[in-house]
Amino acid sequence: MRLEDYWGIGPKTSERLGDSLGTERAVEAIESADVRALVDAGLHRGRATRILRRANGEAGMDVLATRDARSVYDDLLSLAASHALTGHAADRIRVLTPSTDRAAIESRLDEVVAARAAWDDLVEADRDRIVDAFDAYDDADGSDLAAVETALALREVGVTGPPFEEIGSLDGEALRDMAGALADVRGAIEPGPDGDAAFDVARGADEELDRRRDRLAAARELSTAAFDVLDAVRDGSLRDFEALEAATIEHVASETGVDPATVRAAAPDDALDAADFVSGTLRDLVAELEASVAEREETVAADIRERIGGVRAVEDYDDSDGDADGGVARAVAAVSDAAFLLSLARFAAECDLIRPELVDDGIAVRNARNLFIGADVQPVSYAIGSHSLASDSGIASAETPPTGDRVSVLTGANSGGKTTLLETLCAVSLLASMGLPVPAEEAEIGTFDRIVFHRRHASFNAGVLESTLKSVVPPLVEDGRTLMLVDEFEAITEPGRAADLLNGLVTLTVDRGALGVYVTHLADDLSPLPDAARIDGIFAEGLTSDLDLRVDYQPRFGTVGKSTPEFIVSRLVANASDRGVRAGFEHLAGAVGEEAVQRTLSDAEWSDGDD
Q1: Residue 461 pLDDT > 60, yes or no?
Q2: Residues 326/315, Cβ–Cβ less than 8 Å
Q3: CATH for 1-58, among 1.10.150, 3.40.50, 3.90.550, 3.30.720?
Q4: Within a 10 A sphere around the Cβ of 584, how many other Cβ atoms?
Q5: Rounded CA separation 36/40 (Å)
Q6: Burial state string for 506-532 with b = 16 or more CB within 10 A and e = fewer than 16
Q7: Which whole number is the average pLDDT over 240-263?
Q8: Spelled out in words, what is the top-level CATH class assigned to the domain 357-560?
Q9: Peptide bond just before 163 cis, omega within 30 deg
Q10: Strand, helix or coil at 96?
Q11: What digits encode the pLDDT tens for the residues 322-365?
């Protein structure tokens, strides 16, 4: 396959990847979603991530039907990647894409839920040990030795069951032998031309090899300064050329540690003069010592290769003899996969995520939380479409969400969490589509071909209206299952016409068999909605003693929410320090209901703020 056949790779990028990696290796990096390889080849990390998302999840990326849906997707992956144990695991998380393949989603959920169970079962000290092991692995840039040592650490703390069977299948004693052998290796192990592991032998692996290398280094140093050697051995007392030859051999032997006989054997027999003799002796001695070092390196490398017990390429591993140690390749692959799953397990544990039930249609959550606004947040229960959340599920301060309604129109107080609820539903749907747990106590999530999330954009002009309609309508009328999450049309056109457009969108959503939640302040202006649609409301309940708006964020089903402007005016009256400004706000209090404003101020004065 040509590099330019991949999304986002043009001629210049193709040439860069080809020059840096070679076409075959570049294709392999793209197909295996190897962000690091593309970044090392010179691509910006963000661009490399986008290329790999498209290459490995083209259909899934089409689920993200709007810019705001893509924004939530990016934020979710950034949050998940922040819990990654290694840089490579973070890269793998960032290239996850939504999927419409139910089997693939279920399989990922199985793995992540099992990984979280394994993580939860560990005591804190063992978790710290795992984190430290992966930190060392990252610091060593994922070296083979670091991978083997990490595999040992995982085995020793008991990370060997599902979904970490590959770690469990590695033989501990073989891993320890590999670690000892790999400590004698300098640099990464790579497959050689014959398929055997190719590497440099590290200093300290063999005393004899170290001695030969030291002698070679000394001889090379002398050979670069042959005239200095000649000056050192030339002496007025030397009677003839034979005496100079002897002095040269003695000096070289002394400086390099090489046996004089070896130096003598390297000396030329046909030197033209003293300078030619010295330079020729040193040149031939370096060549002989290079051959000696190479011979010893091969002997030591063969021993290390046998101790390592495998080749670098995973596909070359053959376990037909039942030997479970599998060499370095299996350890490297198993540790990489473990880092990825344990990173997702940490994300699920620290954000308290649960496995959703995948259903054919609908979206329903009990006590769902928005992951982007901190831990101290009121959970919310909500649903559209069919679901089976029981009335005794413990839904806080709300009845069970109705079942069967295809569309809801969400109304209520300013700063009442309507947009946050849309974002929460979008995030829950996207997490489930990627095979990841969701922030709720219970969830039933359908599979969607498109998710249309559109935040309110406070620009009142025809261009914004047109672009908004072009953003939300085409995905709605396409074949397949669509989830519509649209915020405040009245922000982009006059209220009367916005109500007409909203009526049309609700009706179109029902007609197309889609699901939708539409946020608006225009519930009273809407025409009768289709039978499959309902109106829900969020209510402000007053002000706290700190004059913060007190809102029950749990929607009330089948009820129009109120904006309750008297609460906002009450806060403005109470906070006004200028007498004239205060008088202005008091005038507005009369317009919205002075009695209500005074009651709100009285309630706030006596409120303890705890509710």
Answers
A1: no
A2: no
A3: 1.10.150
A4: 14
A5: 6
A6: bbbbbebebbbbbbbbbbeebeebeeb
A7: 88
A8: alpha beta
A9: yes
A10: coil
A11: 443 456 888 989 999 999 999 999 999 999 999 999 998 899 99
